[in-house]
């Protein structure tokens, strides 16, 4: 898989964070491969999380039976991207609210069939890249939070696969705060290496989009 245009949707307040380092590593590794990389830094943008009628430009067409998915316009950055990487610290076994808001507001347009066909999301790839403060064992069959794949199901299947993305296996940085500086450096090195050998056999086996859309 050769991504030409990559959008990194990034949610961390601090440029000194491990998430910032992971985002910077991705920008550098992808740019070095000739990709065009765009970063949506959601906190810096003061991205509005709530999907509301205010988002509809040019007037709401049907205020009485308001449907966000039918009213919202396509988002150019998403339209351009071959690959979307979500970089975030795990909050409550999910994404931070500001990133969920991006999914609600930007991916909301994909729910409209018209937008869906225009956007050709099925040609696009997406992946989650995130940090935790729990070690891997906590998100395992025998851990208190259970298997990480179950935790990620609503995001990876319920949102990304449902919207038509092909979803790459997630990049998980387990508990970077507790490890040594060397272990953090090696996590970042592993991420860079993965980005250079990108993702050939790395797609998750979800049911195809068409089985979601059979009712249309
Ligand atoms: C509301 C909320 C809910 C949460 N829910 C969960 C949850 O459900 N599950 C869970 O596991 N966690 C949860 N957390 C914890 C959260 O996921 C972690 O605190 C976060 O993922 C840590 O990532 P960070 O980027 O903020 O780390 P940071 O604390 O910024 O970084 C970790 C370490 O990496 C260092 N570092 C920074 N840059 C570099 C670099 N270039 N090279 C090497 N080292 C570097 C930093 O100096 C620091 O020592 C929650 C937190 C909050 C606030």
Order of SSEs: EHEHHEHHEHEEHH
**Counted beta strands:** 6
CATH class annotation: Alpha Beta
Estimate the strand proportion.
5-15%
Protein model, in words:
This protein has eight helices and six strands. The relative contact order is 0.16. Strands 1, 2, 3, 4, 5 and 6 form a six-stranded parallel sheet that branches. Helix 1 packs parallel to helix 7. It has 216 residues and is an alpha/beta fold. The chain has one domain: Flavodoxin domain (Rossmann fold), CATH 3.40.50.360. Residues 12, 16-19, 21, 89-93, 131-134, 176-177, 181, 184-185, 188 line the site of flavin-adenine dinucleotide.
Summary tags:
binds flavin-adenine dinucleotide, globular, NAD(P)H_dehydrogenase_qn, Rossmann fold, 216 residues, 14% strand, 6-stranded parallel sheet, alpha/beta, single chain
């Amino acid at each position: 898989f050769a991504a030409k245009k990559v959008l990194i949707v990034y949610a961390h307040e601090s440029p000194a964070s491990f998430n910032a380092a992971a985002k910077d590593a991705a920008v550098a590794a992808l740019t070095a491969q000739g990709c065009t990389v765009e970063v949506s830094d959601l906190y810096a943008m003061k991205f509005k999380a709530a999907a509301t009628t205010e988002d509809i430009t040019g007037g709401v067409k049907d205020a009485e039976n308001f449907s966000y998915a039918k009213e919202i316009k396509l988002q150019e950055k998403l339209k351009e991207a071959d690959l979307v990487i979500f970089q975030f610290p795990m909050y409550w076994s999910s994404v931070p609210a500001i990133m969920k808001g991006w999914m609600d507001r930007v991916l909301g347009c994909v729910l409209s069939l018209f937008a869906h066909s225009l956007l050709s999301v099925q040609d696009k790839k997406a992946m989650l890249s995130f940090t935790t403060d729990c070690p891997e064992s906590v998100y395992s069959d025998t851990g208190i939070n259970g298997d990480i794949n179950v935790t990620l199901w609503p995001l990876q299947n319920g949102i990304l696969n449902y919207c038509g993305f092909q979803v790459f296996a997630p990049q998980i940085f387990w508990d970077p705060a507790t490890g040594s500086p060397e272990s953090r450096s090696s996590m970042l090195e592993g991420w860079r290496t993965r980005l250079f050998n990108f993702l050939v056999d790395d797609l998750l086996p979800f049911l195809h989009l068409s089985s979601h859309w059979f009712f249309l």
